[in-house]
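Question:
Write out your own:
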Amino acid sequence: MQAAVKIEGLKGLKEALEKLPRATSRNVQRRVLLRRAQPIVDAAKSLAPVRTAKLQQSIIATTKRPRGQKTAAAQAFGEVIGRGGSKAAARAAAKEAGSSLVAVFIGPGRLAQAGQQEFGNKNHPPHPYLRPAWDQHQRSVLDGIADDMWAEINKAAARLAKKAARAK
């Protein structure tokens, strides 16, 4: 299951990120999102059922896209085509999404029983651990992203200024 979250009202933050070099901007976003995801990971580990502890140990936050999940560019392309847009508009949307989106994925790795625990099956009742962890920490995670992002942007800008001063 994928939960998409859109945060609005951060125009100044977006402008500040765009002033940084592209790689630096993406790294700033990754650091903040991974740091903010950690309370959800910790809560999911504490809520996960313990039989062999493999499920608990497999729960991580990562920027690597899980196998089988579409890339941001593919999703954007499909959305534009699905709304009846042209292929040129879809390619432009895919290019924009692919170059600007930073995503963090939280969950177990390739553990086969992970989905069975969360959602259950005909022989096993559900034992949710990820969704309750998200519900428990969603507000604090989302509220803190902007503050952390500003702090990281300022640190990155200071590092870039220091590097530029050394180059002179």
Summary: Residues 11-50+111-157 form one domain. The beta strands are 59-62, 105-108.
